[in-house]
Structure formats: structure tokens, C-alpha cells
Amino acid sequence: MVCFLAYHFSIGIWYPFPTFISRFFELAGLSYAQTMPMVWRVLVTLDQIKSRHIPDLCIEDLPIAYRLRSHGSSIFLLFSSSKDPLILKASKNKDEWRRKFFFVKRDSIVKGVDLPMKWLTSGRI
What are the residue ranges of helices labelled H in 14-106? Predict the structure, then answer.
């Protein structure tokens, strides 16, 4: 089984997620459910910037503007590297986001067997 938060889908993206976003989770080694809504807002915004304006943008460039940090309980966020964040209002919290989730059998979805099997306690980016 794999856990998805409803928030991921409420912002208009579907699994399998775009390559840019999937690459973030591959590099970080995190489960999709381990990231706060602000991570998704940043990733979706950067994915849109990449597809519309900067095709050479890659997720490996992310540490220039953001650092991955633990928010406790193995939940992670992206912390702006400067006092002027690259994406404004991305850190705004979404009420009750942790309580809205669902589980899916890995073998019932495309690339489900490739999803992380356990939660990490520290990210790798």
C-alpha cells in the first residue's frame, strides 16, 4: 500500500506525477505523504516555470533557492535559502491537510512498485 494525501490532487496534478516532481521525490527518498503542502506548491510552480519558460531547469537546481528541512514527525518542508523566497506565499499552511489521505495498492497503479516502501527520517537533498 502507498499513502497519498488528498492535497496533492486538489491542486490539479495526478499520479504518475510530472517527471520534474517525481525526480524530487526520487532524489530526496521521501514518500509523497511526508511533504507539507508548501513543498507541493513549490514543485508544481517550478514544474510550470520549467515547461513554459525555462526548459533547462532541473530539480538538481532546487538547493539554490530552497533547503529540505524536517518539520518533525518525519514531515518535511522546503525552507527558503534567502529572506526573499523564490515563490511567494508557498509557505502558507493548509488546514487539516494531514487528515485527508487515502491508501492505494501498489500493484494497482502505474509505477506503483517503484514507490518508496518506508518513510525516511531525514531527506537526502
Answer: 19-28, 37-52
| Continuous H helices in 32-74 | 37-52
Residue 72, sorted as left (phi over 0), alpha (psi -120 to 50) or beta, turns out to be left
Distance CA 35, CA 75 (A): 6
Q: Domain-by-domain residue ranges, the chain? A: 2-113
pLDDT tens-digit map of 78-119: 988 888 878 877 766 677 787 888 888 988 988 888 776 766
The whole model's pTM is what? 0.83
Q: Which of 99, 97, 104, 87 is nearest to 44 (CA)?
A: 87
Give the residue from 115, 80, 95 showing the smallest Cα distance to 3: 115
What value, to the nearest 5°, has the Cα angle with vertex 111 and ends 106 and 112? Answer: 15
